[in-house]
Amino acid sequence: MHHSSQHQECGACGSSALVGLFAAHDRNQRTTADSFSVARCTACGIVQTVPRPAESDLASLYPVQYFPATVDRISQHRFQQDKVLLVRKHRNTGALLDVGAGIGLFVQEARDAGYQAMGIEISGQAVATGLQHSDVPLVHGDFLTTDLPDAGFDVVTFWHVFEHLLHPYDVLKKVHRILRPQGILVIAVPNFASFQARLFRSRWYHLDLPRHLFHFSPSTLQATVERAGFSVQEIHYRWRDHDSAGILGSVMKLSPPGETLLHRAVRKIVGIPVARAAAEAELMITHSGGAFAIVATRA
Ligand SMILES: [Zn+2]
Asked: How many Cβ atoms from other residues are within 10 Å of residue 20's Cβ?
């Protein structure tokens, strides 16, 4: 794999003052044996993966199994419902665009809840799977280069997608252009400032190097969206899928290919309830968890 440059500058503000925090590698998918640095920009404070993979290498970091061909729709329904409930608190109708829609599970849930929802997704494999299982409108393409109407949407959502983007600030400026005034932006990401992130450090499941290019905290993400012309309305914690998965995945693989019966039994009988209890304790004690979502309005 080649990298975009040897002496890398901050991918968010362009400063060249990056300070390494620790080294880590691709523990979750093992797409590369390379070691990466998790570094903080001393100018803007945003933590990022260094070196950033080149754009042409990004697709190779997502193995076929990254986008599942089948899903557990019952557990998924609960997770998608949580997302709809958060959006509904701020806007209960209108045109919604989900960026990085995957196979379209959230788009489907939002349509069922009455939004005119569509999704855009860069993985052709995910779009094909989504269109096989449903009739949700999914556009195959790159958000930055796909033609989208100015002021065409009331809500734009990024569910655990924003941390994967090479050019997050350019993306925010485009969202600003396609949202109507007072339109809603929702960005959900892992929480690098969480207790579980500090505890597990390079072994933290939600680090997911090198697919996660940026590692936001509530304060760095808030500053980034405000710089792009948005006004933050809410920072939401308590995500029942990501909070406990961040702990369980850091301690043991969530469901490795060819999982043995013993691993599966330990994971389900011991791992899942213990991780849920630990995630609940983290929320109660720190008032924060392994993931958060920012809801902001377009100024
Ligand atoms: Zn910076």
From this structure: 11
